[in-house]
Sequence to fold (125 residues):
Amino acid sequence: QVHLVESGGGLVQTGDSLKLSCQASGRTSSINAMAWFRQAPGKEREYLAVISRGGGRMLNADAGKGRFAISRDNAKNAVYLQMDGLKPEDTAVYFCAANGHSTGITAQAGDYAYWGQGTQVTVSS
Fold:
């Protein structure tokens, strides 16, 4: 009964910035952690970052290389992914995910009960 919708993707050039948004609806009071993943063609889904309702954070240093940041606005039931210095290797479908209060911050996709449909990010030279 929790629904997630991503937005903000598009076609950009190397070095550009994007801010992705994920809007939650439904029984949003049941949500604890919200996370970002991405999946490129021919590759497995990759964890990027997670943030709890209280603001605790965990990032995948091997993915964004310091160029990505996650934030959250509980009043708006939204989570964001700021991406700077984009590279062609960042081209992928970006997904947001959420879990309930029984689960804390985690990098494992299987621990998330709710998923959005994804938003495409394409980075050209």
